[in-house]
Every structure is written in structure tokens, then in C-alpha cells.
């Protein structure tokens, strides 16, 4: 088995008992075998050694909500309200997508995510098998699902549900376990209640978690009350959505009662600050959710509403906006923001083997170049990672003990070809 | 005179008549001689040629409020309220600063600013002559001033005022005009009214503009009302502060009447979104100010309350937060955010020769590497510069026609020595 030995490194571990370790990390196969101040025993002479000089290591970041293939629409339509942007701009363009576009968009997203330190991403889109192939090849970890809009005729709905089920059967646990799958009705406002119940049943039968968009805008919450006599949390709860492992994206507009119910049901939330601000959806009640024990994590959403996939940006936003909006400068302190992007991301996806650098955990970790003016003086590293760092500071990335970014370059993907393909896809979509 | 010819470039000019130019830019001495689609005539055979391939050019960015030497305190104290952070953390550490620390901190800040595309920064601090020396050497443009806190005894106040006046006399217009000076009482809550009036008089005598902190927190506004019977805008107006060119930093808590008065008096505002969020001071009414015709611009504030000096971050924040907080997704569109960091910054500093790429303007411009995943597809460049770009995408920087950053490296500063010095200064301050 391949071994790595990181020497003279500084590790921000997210392990409460040893938050910062200066020393060594030994990786055997896909796991961390040792991390600590002393040189480890039992390292194979064939282990590849990496000098930690000038670098800071941390767990790979976890992006709990997005639509990778939407990178092709980055910058295509900005500064519009969600429903107009979605119905008049995104959906017509996405209707023109062919499999090749989904693949190219996903590859472009994965290049961007890997290079900015994301090692696991959640993706909801269609033609998910095409995305899965890119995930398999790229070395990234993906929690993938066929997202389904259920506004069409009965037959279309049935066939989409079957697609979603087929994707889980075909891909859950594949790529050495790097790929897992979920079932995902798009949102309560795009899926009739009975249809959502079918997804819940399928998730139960397949034994996978559920994911959906929820309470992103006030308009959507009000519509839910008009149509179904309940706000989205109660509505989904009635449909059994929270009877299984469930992840909801956005959760911007919540009452105290809804927050309490999400905590009680153990529901995971993907907080997407940039997208919520850009689409003017509002500011999620993250400090209240964290206080109530809701399992909050971070997501970028698609690149068309962000417009980048850099989780360092989301971390910094999460640390900044809740202070400014609440008037409490202790809201979401730096360490809590770093947890949101790492160990809380793992928890939100029910993974206890990710998000922390500790013996026995999966070897998903990243290294940033600390020899830059904006990281000086070297004082509080957690503060620097949250308030000063950026995805472009990432030099190396390992996933499952395999180096997928080396010196800022993806080792398993042809970046130049992917950029060229993306440009071609975009031009065809816009002219087509 | 040195000449530059940029060939096959894409230029985001901020010139309303030609927002995006694909072609050539010819620089002679410190000025842009030509920009347009055709190759220019009359280029010297000695002109240095730069291929624009894979790059996008834009005006250098203008940071209208900061305290460069505070970079030494980056990460030293986070997540606290302004008054506690200032009085219990910053001021005691700053009291230990020696001239060498001011110099090192300023140098570190200038490295960070240059490399992230800032070509002109406003700086308020003490021992300003030390900062001016670093500005002179580094090639950056600086609008500098001795910021004065007037809470001490009469004699100390008099001597500080004299220092501030001396700085203007010694440095205004120096370094080939790259350095200009202002007069700066720190804030209405740290300077008695009569003392502020002395600064106004001195600014009048010296014929330089005025700068101060204003209405950053609610507490400060309330104190102003208690102490002086007026909110800060009216208070400063009564003291004659707005009778001359004046720039106020923050301006977070304003009434409609105050906004109208700032517009009427032609006062410039430095909006510092990251600092205001991080210190939980609030969210400035930027859309309202822009609508009223107030001359808003962008600043980072000091690195201790940000914690970086990357104006791309401020631009993105300015474009995002006002949408999210106001609920209006058309608030501060991408192009307006880009103006805030460039042409509006120039306007806020009463400069009509900066902030636009156009023949006759000063040759202050930057080039970003567009051959990166997060800039693809190449669709709306303004959108990409605001929502996806970051200071680390900057490859080259020119100021006054001189290349001060080449391939991401400062040409006139020893970056490694500056980082090392900064670490030493910090360790002495914290242990001293």
C-alpha cells in the first residue's frame, strides 16, 4: 500500500484534543495512520516524503450543496431574483444541455473545487451518471444524486423517479467508496407531496439519505403555506422526509419552531451564504441553528449563483455576515466557520471518518502555502485560514491517500482541455 | 521615456464609451497614450512588449481607507466588539510599536496590496514619514496622513497636530507625485470639537483634503448625540469639516437626512464592508448612498479587522451583502461594484486621472490570469472580476507606467525579508 510521510508540518486538525499539531503525519493506503509531534515508527522505506516547510495542512473541505454542471452558466445571468433567474434564464439554457455539456461542466467544477481544497462535494443534477464518471476519474469524493423536478406529466415523473433509483443502484459505493448516492426531489415547490413521498419510500428501500432545497425564499415559504397549509419544515416532516437521514439546502427562512424541529429530527442543513446573498434570498439564521444543535454545514450552490466554488469564500462569508447582521461580533467565530467547512460537513453527511486529521480517519487533506504576505505574521492560524486564506493558496490535495493536486495542478485531469471544452459548450449553448 | 505596448489584450476599461476593448494599449512614461482595437502608430522600437494572451487588464484598484501597519496585528484578536477590540487589544499593542514596526507593517501591507492589484491606498496612522519612505521605495501610490487621537493633554494635542502638519509639508506631492497627503483627526469621538476645527483650519491653510472615521457604530453615534447634541454628520458639518474636500470612513449608521447632506456637500465615503461585518458594526446603506449621489468608494480598513487587504474581497462583499440584506438582487450590480473599486475610488479622492483605462490617464493598471477554471467559460468578464476573481489572480501590476509586480512578484521590494521582519516585529510586540 502507498505510504506518505509529511515531515515538519503544521496541522490544523479539527481534533478538539489536539487542535494544532507540529510534526508528522503518516498515511497508509487511504487512511491516516499517525499524526503527532514525534517521528512515527514503522514507516516503509518506500513511503513518499513531503516536506511541510512553509505549508499548513488541514482536512479537505466538504461542499454540501451544489450543481457542478452549472459552471457552464457562470456569469451568464447575474443580479436577478431567484424565480426569474431560474425560470427565464437557467432552465431554458439547461434544457439545451446534452450529456457532453453535463460532463464538461462537472469536470470544470471539479477542477475548480479540487484546486481550492474541496475533497468531497454534494451534487444534485440530471444525467448524474455522466458526473459520476468524472468523479471516478478525477479522484474527488462525491455524494451524487439525480435531482428531480416533478412538475411534468405523470409518465415523465415516473421515469425520472426510476432514473434517480437507477443511479443509486448503479453508483452508490462505487469508485472505491468515493461515490455515494442520495435521493433528491428538487424542492417542495417543484414536487407534489405524493411524489415526495415516493422519494422517501425509495430512499427507505435503497437505504440512502434524502436531499432537497428548502425555504430558500420567502415567496416559496408563502406558496407552501397557500398550497399545503403548512410551512416547508412541517410539510416535509408530514411527508416523512425527516424520518430518514435528510439534508436540506438553504433553510434561510425558518421560525423558532422550525429550527427546533430540524434539531429534534437531526436534519442536516447546507448553508449557502454567497448564493443566498447574490439571489437576495436573505441571510439564514445560522447562529440560532447552531445554538439549537442543528447540523449546519457549508455549500457553494451552483456557480451560476455564486459565482465560484471556493469554500474558503463561503467560510469567510459565514464568519462575517452573521456578525454584521446580528450585531454580535462573537457570532460564528473563526473556529466555528472552519468546522462548518470540515468536520461539520462530515457530520452533515453522516460521515465519522472525514473532516478531522486523526489516526484512523480517511486521508483527505490539503496543504496551503503560508509563505505569503497575507498569512503574516504567523499568529493565529485558524484566523488566517478563515479570514485571510483563499482557494488559490492551496498547493496540494490528497483524497483517500492519493495526491490529486500537486503544486496547484490537478494530477488526474487535463485542465487545459477541460477549460477549452467548457468554452465550446458555452458557446454552443448560447448560440444554439 | 519608457514605453510599453500591450498586444492582443482584453481590457475592462471602466470607460463608459468603450467598456471592453480587445486590442492594444500603448503607455508612454507615466501615461496611457493609446488604447484601442488597432495597433497604435508611433510606438518606439525600444518599447517593451507584453503579450496580453490569457490575461485580462483593468485599472489598478483604489483602497480608500486603511491602516497599513496594523498588518502586524492580523489575527491577534478576532471576534470582539469594536470598542473592546480597540481599547483593550489594539491600542495597548500599538503603544509598543517602534518606528521599525510601523515600517515593517507598512511594507507587509504594501506587498499584499500590490500583489492583489491595489495601486493607490489611503493610509491613516502615526509615524507616517516611515510609511511614506516605504511607499516611495515600493512604487505604489499613497494618500497618507498622520491620524491623530486627541484624547490626551493639551500639549500632546498641540504636538500631534504639528506632526500632522509637518507630514503634509514634507511629503505632499513627493515621489513623483505618487504621494499626496491629507489632514486626519481620528474621529469625532476621539477628538474634541475645537481640535477638529484646528485640523479644518490646517487643511485650509495647507490646501489638502480631510479624512476621518465617522458613524462606524451605533454606540458612537449615540455618544455623539449625548456629548454634542447632534449626530456625527451634522456635528462635523457645524465644525466646517465638509467645507473642504472630505473623505469619511465607514458611514454605517446614517439617517436619510445625513445621506442627503453628504451628497449635497460632495463628501466622499469609504465603505469597508469586511471590517464593518467582522466588528459587527452593521451594514452601511450603500444602495441608498449611491442613489442619493454620495461619492462612495471601497476600503479594507486595517488588516486586524478584516483580516486581509484584498480589494477583490471587498468588491465581492459589496456586490453580495447589499443584495442579501435589502432583498433586492439588483442592488450594487457587478459593474457598480467594479466602479467602487476603481473609478469611484478615484472620484472619492478627487482624482480625474486614475481609475479608467483611457488615453491621457495615468498608467496604473493590472493584469489577471484568466486561464483558470474559475474564470471559465469566458462569458461576462465584469461578472467574473467581481464574483469569481481574487487578488491571487493578479499577475502583473503597473503604476505610473512602471511595472511593480511581474509574474506575481514585487519588483522593487524584498518580499521574503519583509515577511521575516514582520514575524520578528510581531513576536517582539507580543512578548514585549
From TrEMBL, chains A, B:
Binding site for Zn(2+): 65, 67, 213, 301
Catalytic activity: S-adenosyl-L-homocysteine + H2O + H(+) = S-inosyl-L-homocysteine + NH4(+); S-methyl-5'-thioadenosine + H2O + H(+) = S-methyl-5'-thioinosine + NH4(+)
Cofactor note: Binds 1 zinc ion per subunit.
Binding site for substrate: 94, 146, 157, 186, 216, 301
Cofactor(s) in the UniProt record: Zn(2+)
CDD domains tied to this protein: ATZ_TRZ_like
Domain (Amidohydrolase-related): residue spans on this chain: 58-404
InterPro entries associated with the record: Amidohydro-rel (IPR006680), Deaminase_MtaD/DadD (IPR023512), Metal-dep_hydrolase_composite (IPR011059), Metal_Hydrolase (IPR032466), MTA/SAH_deaminase (IPR050287)
Enzyme class: hydrolase
Function: Catalyzes the deamination of 5-methylthioadenosine and S-adenosyl-L-homocysteine into 5-methylthioinosine and S-inosyl-L-homocysteine, respectively. Is also able to deaminate adenosine.
Family label: Belongs to the metallo-dependent hydrolases superfamily. MTA/SAH deaminase family.
Protein name as it appears in the record: 5-methylthioadenosine/S-adenosylhomocysteine deaminase
Native source organism of the sequence: Paenibacillus cisolokensis
